[in-house]
């Protein structure tokens, strides 16, 4: 028989349910509070269940961040040059080879060592200044530029040469005790507004940068003979990229002088101006080997004389040396020569010299055969109207020779 009475066990179960309901309610309230604070409790998901697309509003920005446009080759190399002080200095010079850099102009603004001369060094500078300028330059004072040799080599490193390779400017004074050079500044210089117009990349890392300038500021033009002023507003700078990614400057010349075709090597070298010296002779031999080529004497196909322009008015000229050449041993030519005892016919007019290269060869080998090919070098000394001596050097390759009487 059923009764409606509640047993103690049922009361306990009812109390448990009430407490459970209370706990569930508290948990729901706590979850709502978390939601109100912008925090979501972690929700376990079934990795095997298909993902569901939720229609939540897209709050991401409507525009994506943009990257700057890539530089054009012209802009890239313009920036490259602007960011390197030595490259910019090279733009201010005209030179066909790194060793021909006009150093006075290239180093005109110094090397930035920031060292002020004191004591004996300062006295040396002042003595040299007075010797160079006995009347003094009161308007300019004693402003000088200090160039330690090691800093000069640092500046020349972008050209791939050292101080031993370049022509030391006459304006520099050398202090051998410190191996330091000095000169006195009078003005400033620099390239005006300029821009790169074209870039050509070739083989072996060669890059030709064509650029133009609208103006050029320079020091006194009369103080320089070459490489001082950009007389042509359209220039081309030739660079070569090195394995480490840097660039070496090879030349900076007017565009009208630049050519992509290889120029034929000259036969005659204007070796040097001034008195004869064995040192200049050795340098001439090395330079000729690298940059020039001998005349090939062939009685059937060439004339019997060598004719060349001196570039100045000749007051007198003479054949200074005739020497047998051995390219494998410079000493044979530099030291093993004899005073010229063979009469060689030559003539000159106002600016041109012509040397007979055939007559003496036949007379010298009269009645004998020549079974080897020989190369002989000539040094011609010509004086200009001011009395300065100019030395010209060239070589002639002579063939084998059979005597007509015996043939």
What is the helix/strand order? HHHHHEHEEEEEEEEEHEEEHEEHEE
Beta-strand percentage range: 25-35%
The number of helices is 9
Report the average pLDDT across residues.
75
Sheet having the most strands? 5 strands, mixed
What sort of overall outline do the alpha carbons produce when their principal axes are compared?
Answer: globular
Number of strands: 17
Question: Radius of gyration, rounded?
Answer: 42 Å
- How helical, in percent, are the residues? 10-25%
Q: Please identify the structural class as seen in this structure.
A: alpha+beta
Are there runs of 5+ residues with pLDDT below 50, and where? 1-10, 12-34, 36-45, 217-230
- Terminal CA distance: 160 Å
- How many discrete domains? 2
